[in-house]
């Protein structure tokens, strides 16, 4: 399915919220033909006029489908799924009970952000080394391991979060996990998570949407303890 020429996506490299709708578009074979713009966060291009006209918050992803504007990554994913799904690219099961399990994991995946990314990653990025409280940071890493342990138990014996195929649950969860690995998480204590990460990372749609700047080199392994 080719993308509508009136579609447009503004996105940022390495942003899990941006990656989610990109994955949905790729799964529906729309990504390669989609008009889009990669913006630079460093240059604050998300605050430029074209984005602000569509999204007054100046955030990405920002998506247009003709005259329709859809903002917020989860909303974009759901819109694309509801409008452009068919039997070969469906990411939400038809069965209501199975779909409920996908919804559960979709919305639960935000705990990675709230329990690991925000308290650890953003804290390290925004605090000078000499101002960091190591005891507090150690406690945050302990809680982060508890969060990863939960997902380890969830994925033990499974290839995907729900059922036997890639679903919207994986779309929502994988970018958060990949972001942790990018920042040095080895997942050495979490073999099921590592196996899951390796499997999904090789998916063609993931490779097609892989953050461009991640291909250019590594970054400081601030999450090596994970």
Automatic annotation (TrEMBL):
Name listed for the protein in its UniProt record: Glutathione S-transferase
Domain GST C-terminal: from-to ranges: 95-221
Organism: Dreissena polymorpha
InterPro entries linked to this entry: Glutathione-S-Trfase_C-like, Glutathione-S-Trfase_C_sf, Glutathione_S-Trfase, Glutathione_S-Trfase_N, GST_C, Thioredoxin-like_sf
PANTHER family linked to this entry: GLUTATHIONE S-TRANSFERASE GSTA, GLUTATHIONE S-TRANSFERASE-RELATED
Family stated for the protein in its record: Belongs to the GST superfamily.
Residue span(s) of domain GST N-terminal: 5-88
Pfam families membership: GST_C, GST_N_3
């Amino acid at each position: 399915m080719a993308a509508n020429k009136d579609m447009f996506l503004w996105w940022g490299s390495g942003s899990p919220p941006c990656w989610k709708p990109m994955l949905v578009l790729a799964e529906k074979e729309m990504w390669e033909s989609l008009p889009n713009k990669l913006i630079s966060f460093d240059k604050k291009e998300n605050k430029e006029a074209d984005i602000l006209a569509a999204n007054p918050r100046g955030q990405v992803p920002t998506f247009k489908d003709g005259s329709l504007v859809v903002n917020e990554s989860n909303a974009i994913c759901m819109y694309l799924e509801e409008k452009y799904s068919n039997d070969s690219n469906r990411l939400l099961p038809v069965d209501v009970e199975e779909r409920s399990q996908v919804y559960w994991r979709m919305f639960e995946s935000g705990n990675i952000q709230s329990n690991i990314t925000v308290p650890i990653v953003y804290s390290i990025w925004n605090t000078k080394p000499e101002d960091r409280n190591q005891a507090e940071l150690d406690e945050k890493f302990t809680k982060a391991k508890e969060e990863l342990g939960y997902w380890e138990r969830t994925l033990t014996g499974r290839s995907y979060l729900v059922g036997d195929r890639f679903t919207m649950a994986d779309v929502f969860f994988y970018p958060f996990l990949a972001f942790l690995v990018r920042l040095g998480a080895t997942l050495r204590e979490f073999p099921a998570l590592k196996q899951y990460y390796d499997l999904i990372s090789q998916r063609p749609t993931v490779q097609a949407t892989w953050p461009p700047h991640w291909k250019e080199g590594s970054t400081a392994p601030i999450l090596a303890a994970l």
